[in-house]
Design goal:
The chain has 3 helices and 2 strands. The longest helix has 14 residues.
C-alpha cells in the first residue's frame, strides 16, 4: 500500500477522485481512502468484488457502506 499511497499523493490532491477500472482486491481504493481521496472502483469478477468489499469495509468500519452494485 505504501507505493500506491505515494503515487496517489504524487498525482492527486485530497478530495480528488481516484478511478480504478480493474479494482481487483481494492488495494488502490484503500490507499486512496487513506490519503483522503474519493474512489470509484470497478470490478467485474463477483468473487473479487466480494473480497474487495469485505476488506474495505473492515478497514473503514466507521463508514456505513461505500458500495453500490450496478
Amino acid at each position: 500500500l505504501e507505493v500506491l499511497q505515494y503515487l496517489i499523493e504524487l498525482c492527486s490532491d485530497p478530495g480528488d477522485i481516484v478511478l480504478d477500472t480493474f479494482a481487483g482486491s481494492g488495494s488502490t481504493g484503500i490507499a486512496a481512502l487513506y490519503k483522503r481521496r474519493e474512489i470509484i472502483l470497478i470490478e467485474q469478477d463477483l468473487k473479487m468484488f466480494g473480497l474487495m468489499k469485505d476488506w474495505i469495509e473492515t478497514e473503514f468500519k466507521q463508514w456505513h457502506s461505500l458500495f453500490e452494485v450496478c
